[in-house]
Amino acid sequence: MSDWQLNILAGVFQQEKFEIQPSTIKMPVQFSFNWEGIAEQVPEGAWFPKEDVLENIEEYKYNKFLDIGMSPNYLFLYKEVLEDIRGHLLFQPDLQALVDGWLADITQDNLSGKQILFIGVHCRRGEGMFAEHMMALSGATMVDHHYFDRAFDIYRSRYNNPTTE
Fold first, then answer.
1. Cβ neighbours of residue 13 closer than 8 Å, sequence gap 6 or more
2. Residue 44 binned pLDDT confidence (cut-offs 50, 70, 90)
3. Contacts 24+ apart (CB under 8 A), 78-85
4. Which residues, 6 or more positions from 53, have their beta carbon under 8 angstroms from its beta carbon?
């Protein structure tokens, strides 16, 4: 992680709770090391860990320089450390207070007597030239509000029932 990446995280999360710090690797010229590629890119542009990596993950934990691909995010691997992550990624107090107030207002205004089901949505728009590159590579276009309107309609059709909305 670089300083600029930590600064982005620190704008949203409490930096004093982090157990990670920016780092750089500067090897003396007389040493060399090999980056071991452990991910493969699918035709749509996303990166996934190679099967042999997942099957032998213990062999990749220590003393290796791993190339994990371009901007990967293997969410399914977070399950084992989810509780630890929750303790390290705490929102800034002002953001948490804003969201808590907003959720309380929504809940208080609920006159239906149904339990409100909150569904979070993350929209990753990309970063500059990388986003343009990925869109060109995949042939995708940026989604607009119609996409999200339809997505929320799907959730409503699945979860609105006599007890929840």
1. 88, 89, 90, 91, 92
2. confident
3. none
4. 38, 39, 60
